[in-house]
Amino acid sequence: MFHSPIAQAGLAFMGLTCAFAVIRGGWPERLAAVVLAVAWIGSEALEDLSVFRNPLVRLHVQPAIAAIDLAYAGLLLFILLLTRRRWVIVAFSAALLIVLIHTVTALDPRITQFDFFSAYYLLSYVVVAALGLGALLETGAPKARSPRLTRPAVRVT
């Protein structure tokens, strides 16, 4: 797992960013970071199954990796609908483009493996960077008080 230098750099970037998001972010950043780490490692583990066995197995592994990416995009959509975090818009957009890359690669045989992985890794880094930026902005944002704990402005008698 993580045999290429770009995969190792991605693992380090993802690991540091997810750790930062879990430590300093709010619940959306924590949830997105944990699921992203599991999805990233799961995708790499599935990719290893296809690399070390018969090359025809790759055809059976890519839909599973696309399903993982689609599920993560769904999680980002869920977070986007529940929160007002701007980083989620960028991460969700990049995640949808990743799913689109899977779809286009399955439909068009002219797309080379280099083209696929170049776009895949680039957009994956955009998702991770958006998560890291979101966790960074969340640490500096003042915490809003709960409306239940504030006193009413006007006293009604």
Structure description:
By secondary structure, this protein is mainly alpha-helical. The chain has one domain (5-139). 76% of the residues lie in helices and 0% in strands. It has helices spanning 5-24, 27-51, 58-82, 87-107, 113-140. Helix 1 (5-24) packs parallel to helix 5 (113-140) and helix 3 (58-82) packs antiparallel against helix 4 (87-107). The protein is globular. The model has no long low-confidence stretch (mean pLDDT 85).
Q: Secondary-structure element sequence?
A: HHHHH
- How would you state the average pLDDT, rounded? 85
Radius of gyration: 19 Å
Which stretches of 5+ consecutive residues score pLDDT under 50? none
Number of helices: 5
Strand elements, count: 0
Count up the domains: 1
Task: Output the structural class.
Answer: mainly alpha
- Portion of residues within helices: over 70%
The fraction of residues in strands falls at under 5%
Major sheet size, sense and barrel closure = none
How far apart the termini lie comes to 68 Å
- Indicate the overall shape: globular
Short description:
The chain has 157 residues and is mainly alpha-helical. The protein has helices at residues 5-24, 27-51, 58-82, 87-107, 113-140. The chain has one domain.
Q: What keyword list fits this structure?
A:
0% strand, mainly alpha, globular, 157 residues
Question: Helices, strands, pairings?
Answer:
Blueprint: H1 5-24, H2 27-51, H3 58-82, H4 87-107, H5 113-140
